[in-house]
Design goal:
The chain is α+β, with helices and mostly antiparallel strands. The protein folds into three domains: about 1-95, no CATH class; about 110-120 and about 140-325, 3-Layer(aba) Sandwich (Collagenase (Catalytic Domain)); about 330-550, 4 Propeller (Hemopexin). The protein has 14 helices and 31 strands. A six-stranded mixed sheet has the order 1-9-10-8-6-7, with helices on one face. Helix 8 (about 185-200) packs across helix 9 (about 275-285). The protein is elongated and about 80 Å long. The two termini are about 45 Å apart.
Length: about 575
């Protein structure tokens, strides 16, 4: 019966006007003894059956079964309507206190509790007690109950899945409050974890986050702190270890219960501060709960897997609020590498890389996403290349030659793939870097971009509005070079092609064709398959332009202050 009481409490919860968002609330026996105004409390087990869990006839109450099915659905369980062991286990998992079933507010006034306009002064470590005492104009901050505010604005359509945009700007400032440090972790560990949590959201959205320890407090968008019991001037009291881990306010305050055993990532015990922080930041940004076991926004707290990630659906949810990542690239290429299998066979594999402004992303074609933890500095991953990045990449790959070149300005470098660094001198005695005009007669730098076409064994150098075709076998320009881009790469739709100053030319082994990129657009060259389907298509002709973000997803910048924050 106690389990039934607990289920009814979960599924009949009215709007929590008097509490902040309770994150990862542990469902235990104390649920039936707290916040009795917020749920229908069963006090008489004999009469409870009349209007509660069963009808007078003894048959199951249809409302109970409906609520049970709803709980099973949002918990990712088989929807049976049967109160089985799996359902009981799900009910007893640590979970967020936000109701699973959304109720609409009848009026905007219901968003605020009666004492929600809380007057309190936040101070940093540098502000002493006398400073606080002399502050005659304490900061007034309306603390909105996050879940209630979201529900009041939520429409019963697809937007209920994705939430609502909380900020109208893309650069957000955050601060770990000086009076809110944890007693369990060092300050450096706390800040490292929060920087990483913010970076994880920045890697999948246009948002950028910067730690700000100097600006006036009212200019800080997201404020974080630890406390116990009555804490940080907050109207919501923490309850000690084991139940409420943290709570978040819609306007940017995130508080963590310092009675909990928070740990650094991948400890294998305790509560992962990183996972709780990522969840909390998601709420502050406007995301509701997402009822999938893989989602960081799911209500139940699950122990952190090693290297947990923000998954595809969570990415789409945050992007539905703030848009997708855009930007131009200086170089895009497939990096070919040879590997030997345990059976002694040599196999060829490749990875796709995007570069800009001295940073690079590895793109996982199979998963259609960037690698978690990118971007990385070019200097770190490509030893010996210019720190500012490169203009072009060329891989001359045929039966006789396997040579990789990077171009920057008027120079180029040959890259030693086996030792993962540039050559200072290759096997032919050539030293690097060299002038482009020395290695490729007839071509003078700088070039906009370039690629090697295995079909005709030519390197295509792009410069301004012209294309220079370089014959690798003859070591000279083709007799017809240079030509206009529009002549070598005609448009299928008249006028729909790049005219000059390309950013990148990229031969893709995944698509077995060439992509030309400029700004936020790309043009795909028709492939052999396209021409077999439609023999009238001219060679090298270009399909109509499309947005880069429609083809390659989540190639996002992070704030410069976070670029060197990586998982330990």
């Amino acid at each position: 019966m106690l389990a039934v009481i607990r289920l009814i409490f979960i599924l009949r919860t009215v709007i929590f006007i008097l509490s902040a968002e309770k994150v990862f609330h542990s469902r235990d026996h104390s649920d039936a003894m707290n916040d009795i105004r917020q749920a229908e409390l069963i006090t008489d087990t004999d009469t409870a059956q009349e209007g509660g869990t069963t009808s007078r006839s003894g048959s199951p109450d249809l409302r109970f079964i409906s609520a049970l099915k709803e709980f099973q659905q949002v918990s990712g369980l088989p929807v049976t309507g049967v109160f089985d062991d799996a359902t009981k286990a799900a009910m007893n998992k640590p979970r967020c206190g936000v109701p699973d079933r959304d109720e609409e507010l009848e009026s905007p006034e219901q968003v605020f509790e009666s004492n929600s306009t809380t007057t309190h002064t936040h101070t940093d470590a540098a502000v002493n007690a006398s400073d606080a005492a002399n502050n005659t104009e304490p900061h007034v901050r309306k603390q909105r109950h996050l879940a209630a505010l979201l529900r009041s604005r939520r429409r019963r359509d697809a937007s209920a899945w994705t939430g609502h945009m909380a900020f109208s700007k893309s650069l957000l400032k955050w601060r770990l409050m000086g009076e809110g440090y944890s007693s369990q972790l060092s300050i450096d560990e706390q800040k490292y974890i929060f920087r990483l949590a913010f970076r994880m959201w920045s890697e999948v959205s246009p948002l950028q986050f910067v730690e700000d320890t100097h600006s006036p407090l009212e200019d800080i968008d997201i404020r974080l702190g630890f406390g116990t019991g009555r804490h940080l001037g907050c109207s919501q009291r923490f309850d000690g270890a084991g139940r409420e881990f943290a709570h978040a306010w819609f306007l940017g305050d995130i508080h963590f219960d310092d009675d909990e055993h928070f740990t650094v990532p991948n400890m294998g015990s305790g509560i992962s501060l990183l996972k709780v922080a990522v969840h909390e930041i998601g709420h502050v940004l406007g995301l509701p709960h997402i009822y999938r076991s893989e989602s960081i926004m799911q209500p139940s707290y699950l122990p952190q897997d090693a290297g947990f990630e923000i998954d595809w659906m969570d990415r789409k949810s945050i992007q539905s609020l703030y848009g997708v990542c855009k930007g131009r690239f200086s170089t895009v290429f497939d990096w070919i590498r040879k590997e030997q299998t345990p059976y002694g066979e040599v196999v060829v594999r490749f990875n796709t890389y995007f570069m800009r402004d001295g940073w690079y992303w590895l793109y996982e074609n199979r998963n259609n996403r960037t690698r978690y933890g990118d971007p990385v500095a070019v200097q770190v991953g490509w030893h010996g290349l210019p720190s500012s990045g490169v203009d072009a990449y060329v891989h001359v790959w045929n039966r006789k030659t396997d040579a990789v070149y990077f171009f920057k300005g008027v120079q180029y470098w040959r890259y030693d793939s086996e030792n993962d660094q540039v050559f200072t001198e290759d096997s032919d005695g050539r030293s690097y870097p060299r002038l482009i005009s020395e290695g490729f007669p007839g071509v003078s730098g700088p070039v906009d971009t370039a690629y090697y076409d295995r079909r005709d064994a030519h390197i295509y150098f792009f410069k301004g509005s012209q294309v220079f075709r370089f014959d690798v076998r003859a070591n000279r320009l083709a007799s017809s070079s240079p030509q206009k881009i529009t002549e070598v790469f005609p448009a299928i739709v008249p006028g729909n092609h790049p005219v000059s100053n390309l950013d990148a030319a990229y031969f893709s082994y995944s698509h077995n064709t060439v992509f030309l990129l400029k700004g936020s657009w790309f043009w795909r060259m028709v492939s052999g398959r396209d021409r077999r389907r439609s023999v009238s298509l001219p060679p090298n002709s270009l399909m109509p332009r499309r947005d880069v973000e429609q083809q390659w997803f989540d190639i996002c910048d992070v704030h410069q202050s976070s670029l060197r924050t990586a998982r330990r």
